[in-house]
Amino acid sequence: MTERRVAVVGFDTAELLDIACVTTTLVMANHLGAPARPYDVILAAPGGGPIVCGSGFTLLSQQSLERLVGPLDTLVVSGGLAVERAAADPRLVGHVRRLARESRRVASVCTGAAILAATGLLDGHRATTHWQFAARLAARHPEVTVDPSPIYIREGNISTAAGITSALDLTLAFIEEDHGAELARQVARHLVTYLHRPGNQAQMSMFTAAPPPRDALVRRLVDHIAGHPDGDLGTVALAALAGVTPRHLTRLFLEHLGQTPGRFVRQARTEAAAHLLASTTLPLASVAAKCGFGSAETLRQAFTGRYGIPPSRYREAHAARRPRA
Fold this sequence. Notes:
Elements: E1 4-9, H1 16-33, E2 39-45, E3 51-52, E4 58-59, E5 63-64, E6 72-77, H2 83-87, H3 90-101, E7 103-109, H4 113-119, E8 126-127, H5 134-140, E9 145-146, E10 152-155, E11 158-161, H6 166-179, H7 181-190, H8 216-227, H9 235-242, H10 246-256, H11 261-279, H12 284-290, H13 296-307, H14 311-321
Parallel strand pairs: 1-2, 1-6, 2-5, 6-7, 7-11, 8-9
Antiparallel strand pairs: 3-4, 10-11
Helix pairs in contact: 1-6, 1-7, 3-4, 6-7, 9-10, 11-13, 11-14
């Protein structure tokens, strides 16, 4: 059995979730799928010492970054509060650059993009990072095209994930690439997360922006709609899920979202379709099915009504703008 060696690089004040979203997701894939090539996950740190995370918790690394050698299947660089100090450390950056040459796949999480940028690996590439850090990264590395919108970007064998938990989405995408969509689906279910979001879903989109917090019921339904666009999202079904009458549900949506449940669902499904059209090559019929539209024609009508162009033209425009790896 040949294992897929995955090295996650941490440093003092690294973000615990940046690391755990990757390691836990990969280990869960091992437990659930018993794939022919399971993941051998290693946490590496400068000197092989403990990592005092930004939260104050301490993680014990398993390998000295200096002594770690390839070949590696995947190299992931975490982010954290002191990432600028880490990115200015020539030894750390040099070892990340060395290991990247020996890795099939290279990725960063959150502000870890600053370390990859310091290695020069992102030069001439499009990359993302936490939206709050994007302007600073762009200013310090003008040779990198920083896009703060997507939750992750994949160009060739280099990937960058946005803020913190977007690492989970990127790792699910890796699992799907390595072992198929079914295992990725099982892992997502066991982690109690949505089946992984398309990479170019906006960090600050309607899927993550909560409605006014004073109504938890509406917030819960919005989360349900975002996570199950292909489910039964009729007003009657949503009302039953919420334990209220359809009439009361409509009143709640109008009060807190400014539109009826039916209109909100149609908007959510159309936006989900836009993400799939821009980030996949799925046939229109498959996109329609995944997003809860009865047919490709129904999708076309809804899409044209919202975006002013048919789905095919939208996909062509995004494909034309997508940089080549």
